[in-house]
Amino acid sequence: MQGLVLQLSRGLLLVLLWLFIYLTLRALKTDVFGNVGMRSGGRAERRGGVFGRGAKAIRHLVVTQGALAGTRITLSEQPVLLGRADSCTLVIDDDYASNQHARLSPHGPDWFLEDLGSTNGTYLDRTRVTTPVKVAAGTPIRIGKTVIELRA
C-alpha cells in the first residue's frame, strides 16, 4: 500500500512540475511575442456609409510627430495594434515604446484606446491612459516621442 501511495505522489509531483514549466514558457512567449491573435491588417477601407448622426466617421490614423510623421493608415473594423513588434499595425521604432504598447479598438462609430501594460505609458491629450478610453477625432495620442491622431 505504501508503494502505491509513493508512486502516485511521484506521478502527481511530475505532472505539477510539467504544468509549471508549460505555464512559465507560455507566459514568456506571450511577453516576448505578444498575443498572436491581436494581429490586424488595419489597411482595408471601412465599408458602408458614415457612422453616427451627422458626424463623420473616423477613417484614418495619422502620425503627426516622431520618426513616422506623415504616415497615414486607413482604418478598418479591426483593432489597431501600436508598438515596436513587427506584428503591430503601426510599428513604432522608439526606445520608449513597448513591443505591444497600445491598442485602438472600434466599437460602432467610436474608437477606444487601451494601454497594454506598457512600461512608459500611453497618453491621450496629456492624460495617462489606465483603462480603455474613448478617443475623439483630432485628440493627440502620445507613445514615447510619437504622436498620432484619429481623423475623418
UniProtKB/TrEMBL annotation:
Residues 80-129 form the FHA domain. Keywords: Phosphoprotein. The keyword Phosphoprotein applies. SMART domains: FHA. InterPro entries: Cell_Proc_Reg/RNA_Proc (IPR050923), FHA_dom (IPR000253), SMAD_FHA_dom_sf (IPR008984). It holds the Pfam family FHA. This is FHA domain-containing protein. It comes from Dietzia lutea. The lineage of its organism: Bacteria, Bacillati, Actinomycetota, Actinomycetes, Mycobacteriales.
